[in-house]
Predict the 3D structure of the following.
Amino acid sequence: MGEPVPGIRAPERAPEERLDSWKEIAAYLNRDVTTVQRWERREGMPVHRHLHEKRGSVYALRSELDAWVKTRKIDVEEERKELPEEVPLVSDVRQVSAGGWRLSWRFGVGFAVAVLVLLGGAYFLSRIRAGNASKPTIRSLAVLPLANLSGDPAQEYLADGMTEAIIGRLSMIGGLRVISRTSVMQFKERHASVPEIAKALHVDAIVEGSVIREGDRVRVHAQLIRAATDEHFWSETYDRNLGDALELQSQVAQSIAEKVEVTLTGAEHARLVAAHPVSPEVYESYLKAEFMLTAPGQLDLKKSVAYFQEAINKDATFAPAYVGLAEAYSALGTVFGGVRPDEVRTKEINAARKALELDPTLSSAHVLLANAYDEVWRWAEAQAEYQRALELNPNDAEAHLGYSDWLLSQGHTDEAQRWVRRARELDPLGIDSQNVGWTLFLSRHFEEAIRELRSGIALHPDDAGAYWFLGFALSGNGQNEEAIPVLTKALSLSRGNPAVMGVLVRAYVRAGHRSEALHLLEQLKQRQKQGYVPAAAFVNAYLGLEDRDQVFAWCDRAYQERSTILRWIKVHPFFDPVRDDPRFADLLHRVGLDQAL
């Protein structure tokens, strides 16, 4: 954050938060009215308009002004340089001779002033043109997490929800690269400047702002900042009822699209402006569910499901709630969700389908449906859903990532690598080394996968998934002795996840530690007696032990579970020792991967 601007009063918290006139605002900032009005127009200083002018036409909040002052970077001396210099008056032009004509001194003064005005106008016009020419086109932007200025930490879910919704709207624009939510949310408690954030995310512009809730009223302030120069070139405040939140999000996104001068197709414009009223009670349940599903430190999948269901019970026509419900069920069915995939997959598919029945333009619902179809090996339908999602939202990193996985499963490894890298461009801090490393591992670029995953661990040393995938890559590359401590670390960080245990059994065997492998396998069997253990854990273990009968017995169990491991059997290096077995060909056929798509 920048230092306070010298000469501006260091604000102190006063009993009255609201400043109800330009005069009060100017006094608070120790400037004249003209100056603060110019700051609002040119630098996005947060000033609001009353909907009903009972106490004046404008007002400002001290907390917002305090935050703005801290981020303002124009020095006072530089500010003074911006003011036009006084032009000295022509006071002694008495006469001008020209071909016998004699001009009075007043006419001479007028003529000289006119010349100066013309020359000055030409000069400033050239400066404006030069300035415009020097400003590059904005082709990419990031919406930073909106600050919760409600004075109530419990309203954090509202600020996060508004942020995600504005990102979602802007992401529909094909001519603009919009950074995904998972990357920008890492700057929620930011200590970096706007240019630093823009550089990290590789964008031309930044949107930042705030949310204030007062009862059922919501006020959103947003401003656009040019990344290279830290120039605030647009600012606006929107005040709506919570039930009109979707309209509010649409208007913010439309204003941003207009200011960055991006070209919209007719379909993109229609999706951008679409908004439906929703009751405050329904929207509140929905936002709480989203918060439980996505906020760091707040993850609670079962509570998330409950809140989404609560929103649906209140309004069965609110399509976004079905999308969230499908996403929560999808998360529950992963190896870290703790629920058998086949127990929630039907619920996931039904919720996504219901969302699309209500609103076919919801790209996220198409992605979730595609992911679910992938998991039940309905390959052609999955491909169609991914492609439709990408048509609706060309900036959807999850759609890019999902399509990359689909290509991997079909054996198109080079294409898959291109799509996963594009996904990371859209979500540079969310699509991490795990995603890219796994793609490289299945593409048999082991050395590159190892480098990628090690770099990810250097940034996130407590990431269990990154250690797990690194264990895959090391073991696949024949570095099993090195894989053992890496997988042991993954096991510790994941609190004994059985999926990690299966890969560790393989590493022990391949490193020559068969007794340790068998001991760990026995632990895995004991875990199975106590609760659910993914079949994939035993598949990986017996692949390492080269027990073909047990491999295919557990593959049959995995087939019944519709286990994720079978998505990759066409390319997975661990299956190489059994590819010549007729049972493998039969399994490949049952999964539907024996034909090219």
Summary: The radius of gyration is 30 Å. Residues 443-597 form a domain with the Serine Threonine Protein Phosphatase 5, Tetratricopeptide repeat fold (CATH 1.25.40).
